[in-house]
Write a structure and sequence with these properties.
The protein is mainly α and about 150 residues long. The chain has 6 helices and no strands.
C-alpha cells in the first residue's frame, strides 16, 4: 500500500508541524518579550568588559602602589554591581516572559484537549509537563542563544 500526499490526492488535510516549527509558532506572538530578555542578557557584555578592564588595571597598578590600583578596583566593583543588576533584571524578565508564553500555550492546549475529548488524566499530565518545559526554554535558552549569536566572544 502506498501513501499518497494529501495535496496530490486533492485533499486539504492539515499537516502537523514539526516540534521546531510548533515552538517557533508558539513564541512568535511574544517576540517583543523574548527580545527584551535577550537584550538584557546581551547588555551584560558591557559590565563584563568593565570588570575585566578594572581587574587588569587594578593588578597592573599594584607594582606602583595601592593608590594606583584603586581606580581599577573601583571600576571592577562597579561593573560587578551593574552586572548583578542586569542579571537579576534578565532573570525576572525571563520568568515573566515564560509565564506569559506558558499561559497562552496552556490555554490553547487545554481548549483543544477538551474539544477533542482527550481529557483523561494521562493526557492532562502530558500537557502540563510539556508546557512546563517551556519555562527554561523561554526564560534561559532563547536569550542565551540570541546573546551567543549576537555578542562577541
Amino acid at each position: 500500500m502506498t501513501v499518497q500526499d494529501p495535496t496530490q490526492a486533492g485533499l486539504s488535510a492539515q499537516i502537523e508541524p514539526t516540534p521546531a516549527q510548533w515552538l517557533k509558532q508558539a513564541l512568535a506572538p511574544h517576540r517583543r518579550l523574548t527580545a527584551r530578555v535577550s537584550g538584557l542578557v546581551i547588555a551584560d557584555i558591557v559590565p563584563a568588559t568593565g570588570f575585566a578592564a578594572g581587574l587588569a588595571l587594578a593588578v597592573g597598578g599594584l607594582p606602583q602602589g595601592l593608590e594606583h590600583s584603586l581606580p581599577g578596583a573601583c571600576l571592577a566593583v562597579a561593573s560587578l554591581l551593574l552586572r548583578a543588576g542586569l542579571t537579576h533584571a534578565a532573570t525576572m524578565a525571563g520568568a515573566r516572559a515564560a509565564e506569559v508564553v506558558k499561559s497562552q500555550v496552556r490555554h490553547r492546549a487545554l481548549d483543544q484537549a477538551l474539544r477533542t475529548r482527550l481529557s483523561d488524566a494521562q493526557a492532562m499530565t502530558a500537557i502540563h509537563e510539556g508546557i512546563e518545559t517551556l519555562d527554561g526554554h523561554v526564560s534561559r535558552f532563547v536569550p542565551a542563544r540570541t546573546a551567543a549569536a549576537l555578542s562577541p566572544l
